[in-house]
């Protein structure tokens, strides 16, 4: 019987794993046979999120030159580097273009096809356009993968779950809001991948409360404006008359920061400096564990500050009062108490200082007497953000971005560190393209989009949804529709994915945040005693080894690529040894 591997989920993560299998197979699995079964109801390559069959109005939030599915020498891994084109090289487009998701889906399909073609002759690939609903089987024997609509399971020597983003059952608050909506004839759209949401219930001209100001909101904004026939002409939006009126708020009350609109020049900060492998080793070695805020965050703050000030002192020395070497020496030994005075003496302009707390809470001290006055204030905030993120004089911001990428690469080894960091990273480093924020301003001026402010709360009473915020004390906005503009949290307890839910019910371990617990070395699924399952692996955002994305910027180390390589090598070594024992 031929060895068999089943990969559940063939979006970018499953494709990336398959690419690493193709890269490592000549050395680890030469001249051997293998059936690889790919299970995904969506086309291989793009999967659900990046499928080609979605609105051409939806963009990526990365420049085309910053998207690659191929490894390079910056990836720390045992397997061989197999270089390939970035999205912009493959598509032949301007590297600074924000490509639409259809084009990214086509790129992912091409990567998948090239990967399959690169597999050794003995490895055969079979795609099953079904949903996997269950995995069972003994720890020391073949696994069975059951597919929706099929009566016979796929038999697998190993199973890898690269499922990606998960749908989820409603939490207690969402359930109460949904129940109230059903009782009172209101509309409640829970967290979802926006391209899959049915927006037809949001009627023209009617107010809609939107909770969430990140990338899911940007998609919602586009689909309910341009998607309904409106158009942008320069800085002016011309409504079609079919748009609802969107009232948006969130915890911060502001959109994610604009993508930076200029290229790096000159010396890069030497990262990691204060948060690298040695510091991670030390954290992992603590017998009583570590606390993110107490033990990890101070190291991250020091690292991001180093990146910021290295750039400021080396690229803009006229805005500092001392030499970089002197500042660096004192910065290295400064603590939380002495650091503010050191920075204030060396960096005269407060706008040149890095204040991560202020960045995370931009509206904390902002109050407006009415929502009308808030609109002008928020438009001014967005305009200032756009100006700063497109002005090379503020290039320390780009250095902090590089620092964030470096930090993310280290954090992968620490497992589940809670959700706050991932949100903070996305807010600073993974925001929308500048043109989307300019469209947001045009929609605001046209009255189609209205801002609610920070610490938004929603209640259901008197037959409507009612929103308040800390930014406009005592005021509220009412609507008969509420949209939760964010992806569901990837928890195995509340996931709608039957396979993961049953895996958890049968003993797979989950973290406090509800992520599937895996061995950080190779992605093997852990049980509640901490033992890795010899025949089950998992990679991606539903695990506690989630990386910063299944694809990444070139030459930034690609944590997901490193994880894919480790898992691919473990898979091939297991199957090789299994075949060897069988032959003997």
From TrEMBL:
Q: Which residues form the FAD-dependent urate hydroxylase HpyO/Asp monooxygenase CreE-like FAD/NAD(P)-binding domain?
A: 6-165
* Region: Disordered, residue numbers: 529-560
Q: Which SUPFAM superfamilies match?
A: FAD/NAD(P)-binding domain (SSF51905)
**InterPro entries in alphabetical order:** FAD/NAD-bd_sf, HpyO/CreE_NAD-binding, L-asp_N-monooxygenase_NS-form
A Pfam family hit: NAD_binding_9
Record's PANTHER family? BLR0577 PROTEIN (PTHR40254)
Q: What is this protein called?
A: FAD/NAD(P)-binding protein
Q: Which organism is it from?
A: Streptomyces yaanensis
């Amino acid at each position: 019987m031929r060895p068999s591997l089943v990969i559940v989920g063939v979006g970018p993560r499953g494709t990336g794993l398959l690419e690493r299998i193709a890269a490592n197979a000549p050395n680890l699995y030469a001249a051997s046979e293998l059936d690889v079964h790919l299970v995904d109801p969506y086309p291989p390559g793009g999967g659900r999120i990046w499928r080609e069959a979605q609105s051409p109005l939806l963009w990526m939030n990365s420049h085309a030159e910053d998207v690659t599915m191929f490894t390079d020498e910056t990836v720390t891994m045992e397997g061989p580097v197999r270089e390939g084109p970035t999205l912009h090289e493959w598509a032949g487009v301007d590297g600074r273009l924000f490509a639409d998701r259809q084009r990214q889906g086509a790129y992912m399909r091409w990567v998948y096809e090239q990967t399959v073609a690169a597999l050794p002759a003995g490895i055969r690939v079979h795609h099953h356009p079904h949903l996997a609903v269950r995995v069972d089987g003994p720890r020391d024997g073949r696994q069975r993968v059951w597919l929706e609509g099929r009566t016979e399971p796929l038999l697998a020597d190993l199973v890898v779950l690269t499922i990606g983003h998960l749908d989820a059952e409603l939490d207690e608050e969402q359930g109460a809001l949904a129940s109230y909506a059903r009782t009172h004839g209101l509309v409640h759209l829970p967290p979802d991948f926006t391209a899959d949401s049915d927006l037809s219930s949001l009627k023209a001209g009617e107010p809609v409360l939107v909770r969430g100001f990140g990338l899911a909101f940007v998609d919602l904004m586009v689909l309910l404006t341009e998607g309904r026939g409106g158009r942008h002409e320069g800085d002016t939006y011309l409504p079609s008359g079919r748009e609802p009126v969107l009232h948006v708020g969130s915890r911060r009350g502001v959109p994610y920061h604009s993508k930076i609109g200029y290229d790096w020049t000159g010396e890069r900060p030497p990262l990691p400096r204060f948060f690298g492998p040695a510091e991670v080793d030390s954290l992992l070695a603590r017998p009583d564990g570590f606390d993110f805020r107490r033990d990890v965050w101070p190291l991250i703050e020091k690292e991001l500050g180093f990146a910021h000030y290295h750039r400021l002192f080396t690229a803009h020395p006229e805005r500092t009062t001392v030499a970089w070497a002197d500042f660096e020496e004192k910065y290295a030994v400064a603590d939380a108490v002495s650091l503010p005075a050191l920075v204030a003496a060396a960096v005269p302009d407060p706008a040149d200082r890095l204040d991560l707390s202020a960045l995370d809470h931009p509206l904390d001290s902002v109050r407006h007497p009415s929502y009308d006055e808030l609109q002008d204030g928020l438009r001014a905030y967005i305009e200032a953000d756009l100006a700063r993120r497109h002005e090379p004089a503020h290039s320390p911001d780009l250095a902090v971005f590089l620092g964030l990428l470096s930090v993310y690469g280290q954090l992968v080894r620490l497992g589940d560190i809670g959700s706050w960091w991932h949100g903070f990273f996305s807010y600073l480093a993974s925001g929308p393209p500048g043109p989307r924020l300019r469209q947001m301003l045009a929609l605001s001026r046209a009255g189609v989009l209205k801002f609610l402010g920070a610490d938004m709360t929603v209640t259901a009473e008197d037959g409507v949804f009612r929103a308040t915020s800390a930014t406009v004390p005592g005021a509220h906005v009412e609507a008969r529709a509420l949209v939760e503009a964010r992806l569901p949290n990837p928890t195995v307890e509340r996931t709608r994915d039957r396979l993961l839910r049953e895996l958890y019910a049968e003993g797979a371990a989950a973290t406090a945040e509800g992520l599937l617990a895996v061995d950080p070395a190779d992605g093997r699924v852990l049980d509640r005693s901490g033992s890795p399952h010899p025949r089950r692996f998992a990679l991606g955002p539903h695990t506690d080894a989630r990386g910063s994305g299944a694809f990444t910027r070139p030459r930034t180390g690609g944590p997901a690529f490193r994880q894919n390589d480790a898992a691919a090598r473990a898979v091939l070594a297991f199957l090789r040894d299994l075949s060897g024992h069988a032959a003997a």
